[in-house]
Amino acid sequence: MHRLTWHLTDIKSLMVLINRVFLLLFYFNVCVFSSELSKSFPQGSLVIGQNNEANEIFVDGEPIKISHDGYYVFPISREQIEPINVTYSNSDGIFLIHQISIEKQDYDIQRIDGLPEQMVTPLDDNIIKRIVAENEVIKEAKKLDMDLTYFKEEFIQPTTGIISGVFGSQRILNGKAKSPHRGIDIATDEGTPVMSCNEGIVIHAESDLYYTGGTIIIDHGHGVKSIYAHLSSVNVEVNQKVSKKDIIGKVGSTGRSTGPHLHWGVMVFNTYVDPLLLLEN
Ligand SMILES: [Zn+2]
């Protein structure tokens, strides 16, 4: 898991800090707190931080939620290239600006052939209607912004197996370019138990979506959600509270799939991150 490192890039902010002893002390404490942390993040990272002094935190000008105990989280998208500015303010105004540099990742091109054509480019009106309706439900689920802070706990891999698809690869399905892969695929036997990657609340549980088959979405707070797809069995219900490692379903090959595997994704609202980066310490 990548945690935020604090460093000043703005001379003005530095002057403000020097003029305010308590803030200078605070800065010192934060530096001690984060001394083991990296200063840049790979594309596809989930950035988790804590600041007890800020009333507001902005990521490239956009406000983000802060928990009562100072936790916040934001994603770095697969496409992010420019450094990200994180601005911290309280009743005295901006007291810290923190610039995050981005480590560019190399993404593969993944070709998958032999999928039924209806699964790649559906033409049937009823299927299109079904996809639109299902997408609408998922879109609403992604918007949820719960006050939970389970995201700050370590994540676990929901099942073991062979990583058959990595995050971010450009997918070419039956020769047609599709959106990048938004999670990882873990290939294993049908029926292998799938665990929740962290504590959370189930916000979506369906046994048969067109593309993703048996699908579960779990909310971990502040827009952070994990998704589990192609399940052969869905063993949880919406609004159910789950602990990390709870068995929530079983690996299958339902929806758009060429063999038994778990598709595991993690997102913050609409931005997907690389689940494998969450497992690194
Ligand atoms: Zn997948």
Task: List the keywords.
single chain, 8-stranded antiparallel sheet, alpha+beta, binds zinc ion, 22 strands, Glucose Permease (Domain IIA), globular
**What is the annotated CATH architecture of the largest domain?**
Distorted Sandwich
Q: Low-confidence spans: pLDDT under 50, at least 5 residues?
A: 5-12, 14-38
The overall pLDDT, averaged over residues, is 87
Instruction: Note the total helix count.
Output: 5
Distinct small molecules: zinc ion
Based on Cα principal axes, name the global outline: globular
Cα end-to-end separation = 5 Å
Biggest beta sheet attributes: 8 strands, antiparallel
Radius of gyration: 20 Å
User: CATH class of the largest domain, please?
Assistant: Mainly Beta
List the domain count as a whole number. 2
CATH topology-level name of the largest domain = Glucose Permease (Domain IIA)
**Total beta-strand segments:** 22
* Secondary-structure element series: EHHEEEEEEEEHHEEEEEEEEEEEEEH
Question: What structural class results from the helix and strand content?
Answer: alpha+beta
Helix content: 10-25%
For CATH, the homologous superfamily of the largest domain is named as Glucose Permease (Domain IIA)
Helices and strands in order, then pairings?
Blueprint: E1 2-3, H1 11-19, H2 21-33, E2 40-42, E3 46-50, E4 56-59, E5 62-64, E6 71-75, E7 84-90, E8 93-103, E9 109-112, H3 117-120, H4 125-143, E10 162-165, E11 170-173, E12 176-178, E13 184-187, E14 193-195, E15 200-209, E16 213-221, E17 224-231, E18 233-234, E19 241-242, E20 247-250, E21 261-268, E22 271-273, H5 275-278
The chain binds zinc ion (ZN).
Zinc ion is lined by residues 165, 181, 183, 185, 263.
